[in-house]
From TrEMBL:
Residues 1-19 form the signal peptide. This is AhpC/TSA family protein. It comes from Lacibacter luteus. Keywords: Cytochrome c-type biogenesis, Disulfide bond, Redox-active center, Signal. Gene3D superfamilies: Glutaredoxin.
Length: 348
């Protein structure tokens, strides 16, 4: 009898460990020019045919709730959060932010599992925040009604779903400060097998270390011309450390704005120091030349996870920037838009 019970228990455990969550996506795309889209999740990519009437469907399995990238073409993507059940979605072409003519594909509605709907709805508020407060100070953003609404929505979701991967996603990547992240981290079920909970703790450690008023460590690193750079020897009144990589599209997209800032504020006392997390020098130098960079560029060429940025400052997402004064005291840091409003106040 004991032998049979052991066999049953083993079968139950094996089945539980290998249990998969099944999901179905049913959607409609409002365009007659696209014949297929792709979905990428958990390292796998699949093509989804689009019928003549614009409808499409897809079925899959996941081990736990996770994000999926919906790919419309090489330059246009959007994110859907997957969970058990039927997910209904609509895709439309909308005017790209900041332009009146160019249109891009975006997910415009999601119905189905509560988790999938929550990701869509909270993402809309986050996007509204980014769009409304581009180029303004961090203080203005965090004192806005939109930011307050975003935090309350995330707080409620995390409280109701302390075991979900999406809770960590909201805390980590939706623009909260380290104090708010710490409050929400304490609401998570740390005994569960959640992804990235250690990464979240690392985020909080970094942001506490780089809080305004703290003095950052001095460092030396090789410049792009082969000479040695030392942070403490920079004579400028203010220094903007920009952490980036040649393979980081958002980093490269931010370069024109940085170039404008450099031209405007360099003679007033601003130095920009680009700190690359590249691994291959050829890629790094090629990107510098292509972007026509005029400021200081340094790198230890150790790759992202072994870089000075990652090991010392716990920077695990780029682009990231730190604005310091001549005494290496932090004025501001973040992953949002570069601090143009702050620079205007410091160097009118």
């Amino acid at each position: 009898m004991r032998k049979y019970l052991s066999a049953i228990l083993f079968a139950f455990v094996t089945t539980s460990l290998s249990a998969q969550i099944k999901f179905t996506i049913v959607g409609k795309i409002a365009a007659d020019t696209i014949k297929e889209i792709s979905i990428q999740y958990n390292g796998e990519k699949s093509v989804i045919p689009v019928l003549k009437n614009g409808t499409f469907s897809f079925e899959g399995d996941i081990k736990s709730d996770c994000s999926a990238t919906i790919i419309f073409n090489e330059d246009e993507t959007d994110v859907l959060w997957l969970d058990s059940g039927k997910i209904e979605m609509t895709i439309e072409q909308l005017a790209e932010a900041g332009t009146s003519s160019k249109k891009v594909f975006k997910i415009t509605s999601v119905k189905g599992p509560k988790i999938s709907e929550s990701y869509f709805n909270i993402s809309k508020v986050r996007d509204e925040l980014y769009k409304s407060f581009d180029n303004v100070s961090d203080t203005v953003v965090r004192n806005s009604p939109v930011y307050n609404r975003l935090f309350l929505m995330i707080d409620q979701f995390v409280t109701e779903h302390p075991k979900l991967n999406l809770s960590i996603e909201f805390i980590r990547l939706f623009g909260l400060n380290f104090r708010e992240k710490e409050v929400l981290l304490n609401k998570l079920d740390k005994g569960s097998e959640m992804k990235d909970i250690e990464v979240l703790a690392s985020d909080i450690e970094r942001e506490r270390k780089l809080a305004p008023g703290n003095v950052i460590d001095d460092f030396t690193m090789a410049k792009s011309d082969g000479s040695v750079f030392q942070l403490s020897k920079v004579q400028s009144q203010y220094v903007l450390l920009e952490f980036w990589s040649s393979w980081c599209a958002p980093c490269r997209a931010m370069r024109p704005r940085l170039s404008g800032m450099y031209k405007k504020y360099h003679e007033k006392g601003l130095e920009i120091v680009g700190v690359s997390v590249d691994e291959r020098k050829t890629d790094w130098i090629k990107a510098i030349e292509k972007d026509n960079v005029q400021w200081i560029e340094v790198s230890d060429l150790k790759g992202f996870k072994n870089s000075f940025a990652y090991t010392t400052y716990k920077i695990n997402a780029i682009p990231y920037w730190i604005l310091i004064d001549k005494n290496r005291k932090v004025i501001q840091s973040g992953i949002w838009s570069v601090p143009e409003q702050t620079l205007q106040k410091l160097m009118p």
